[in-house]
């Protein structure tokens, strides 16, 4: 019997027992949020609820069911703040054209896509995103029960919007499109159908103010407020778009849609490259999130968004790839590095924007953009949305500063494991929830068919 006057001895690490529902990642360098680093640390989570229940020093050796992550880095999962995932079908299709000709070529291809093509494109995109450390994405394309079901099965998170041009047209055409008016009616039905799925958020999708008439934009704003749904839209991507809006409406695209009620909704804006005076105050509203898409903006020659001004004004910024047609990958690590460097070149100032600030956009800003109550940080009580990276390679050597590696040297291919809501979806660089080989072969065959149809014309 122990002496009640003596303090109980500390249990030896090997004596610590963990319940079966606890999964541990042991011995890693953990970056719970940009700017903080815990060496030789452990993170543990409940596999049922997906909630992190421990973060701190290693509590004992890894069990067989745990992940021994010595020599690896654990970071919050990345969120792609703006993409059109099914457009993996169009990767490398017309890389070097002026924007208007590029858009025309995109539409030539898209009108030949079938519902099955769109599904195949989404599957390939999810494989690419998961393999490169993306745990969720904000997406505008064609969305239905089948596609959302595929996201549920993949384990990923999505804030999805079916894009429309008008009551008669959808933004991303396919061989058998539904009318835009029908699509608008389907959004609340899909939201209700997936209301029990914490990883699915449904939005209305308006392509852009230069494609959507004002009455449609005002109608969607009313519908969104009435049904407590969000809206996604592309705004102020190019100087030409802004100039046209000033001519047509006497105000910027951002002020124009604000006047139609859109900034009173839970709004997610893509691009905002060219704000006019007054626009930044609208973008900084607490109900608004903005996706900065530096690689797409550079590839299409759209320009460079004023990110330091946005951050100073309190705009909630996420980071996105846009579609692979204007990128050509879904690797968020490319966005992080490019996003930091392009501001430094633009301002000729190495302090214009730090990589931790851009990493924060891809994690915390992305989490806010998903609209699923996530923080984008690794902390007790938060969802276990995390990625594990190999830090034994040349580009991580010497690897004393994990933040430096994540911001400037890491590639999506360094990601070895991905956990979303406590479920492991990538293990040792293998996606567990989507068949990668089948997804690649399927898209290759479908692209051969579409390009054959285009060549035959
Ligand atoms: Zn876009």
From TrEMBL:
Pfam families, A to Z: Amidohydro_1
CDD domains: ATZ_TRZ_like
Lineage start: Bacteria, Bacillati, Actinomycetota, Actinomycetes, Nakamurellales
GO MF annotation: an example: hydrolase activity, acting on carbon-nitrogen (but not peptide) bonds
InterPro entries cross-referenced by the UniProt entry: Amidohydro-rel, Metal-dep_hydrolase_composite, Metal_Hydrolase, MTA/SAH_deaminase
The protein's name in its UniProt record: Amidohydrolase
Alphabetic keyword roster: Hydrolase
Domain Amidohydrolase-related: residue ranges: 73-425
Domain of life of the native organism: Bacteria
Organism: Nakamurella flavida
């Amino acid at each position: 019997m122990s002496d009640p006057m003596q303090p109980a001895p500390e249990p030896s690490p090997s004596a610590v027992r963990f319940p079966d529902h606890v999964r541990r990642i042991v011995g890693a360098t953990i970056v719970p949020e940009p700017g903080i680093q815990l060496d030789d640390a452990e993170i543990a989570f409940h596999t049922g609820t997906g909630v992190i229940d421990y973060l701190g020093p290693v509590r004992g050796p890894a069990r067989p069911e745990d992940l021994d992550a010595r020599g690896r880095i654990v970071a919050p999962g990345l969120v792609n703040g703006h993409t059109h995932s099914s457009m993996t079908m169009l990767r490398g299709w017309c890389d070097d054209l002026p924007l208007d000709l590029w858009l025309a070529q995109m539409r030539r291809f898209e009108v030949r896509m079938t519902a099955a093509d769109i599904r195949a494109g989404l599957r390939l995109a999810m494989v690419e995103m998961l393999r490169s450390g993306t745990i969720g994405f904000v997406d505008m394309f064609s969305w239905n029960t089948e596609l959302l079901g595929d996201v549920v099965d993949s384990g990923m998170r999505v804030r999805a919007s079916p894009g429309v041009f008008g009551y008669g047209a959808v933004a991303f055409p396919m061989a058998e499109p539904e009318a835009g008016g029908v699509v608008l009616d389907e959004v609340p039905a899909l939201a209700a159908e997936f209301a029990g799925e914490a990883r699915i958020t449904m939005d209305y999708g308006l392509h852009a103010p230069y494609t959507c008439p004002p009455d449609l934009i005002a109608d969607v704003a009313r519908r969104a407020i009435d049904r407590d749904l969000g809206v996604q839209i592309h705004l102020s991507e190019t100087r030409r778009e802004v100039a046209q809006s000033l001519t047509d409406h006497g105000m910027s695209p951002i002020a124009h849609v604000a006047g139609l009620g859109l900034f009173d909704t839970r709004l997610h804006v893509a691009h905002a490259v060219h704000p006019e005076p007054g626009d930044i105050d609208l973008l900084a509203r607490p109900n608004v999130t903005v996706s900065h898409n530096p690689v797409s903006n550079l590839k299409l020659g759209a320009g460079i968004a004023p990110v330091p001004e946005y951050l100073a004004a309190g705009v909630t910024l996420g980071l996105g790839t846009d579609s692979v047609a204007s990128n050509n990958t879904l690797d968020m690590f490319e966005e992080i590095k490019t996003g930091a460097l392009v501001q430094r070149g633009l301002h000729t100032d190495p302090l214009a924007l730090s990589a931790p600030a851009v990493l924060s956009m891809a994690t915390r800003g992305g989490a806010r953009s998903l609209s699923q109550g996530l923080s984008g940080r690794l902390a007790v009580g938060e969802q276990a949305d995390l990625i594990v990276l190999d830090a034994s390679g040349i580009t991580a050597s010497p690897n004393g500063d994990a933040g430096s590696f994540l911001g400037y040297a890491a590639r999506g291919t360094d990601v070895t494991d991905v956990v979303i809501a406590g479920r492991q979806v990538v293990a040792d660089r293998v996606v567990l929830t989507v068949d990668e080989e089948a997804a690649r072969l399927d898209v290759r065959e479908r692209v051969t068919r579409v390009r054959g149809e285009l060549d035959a014309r």
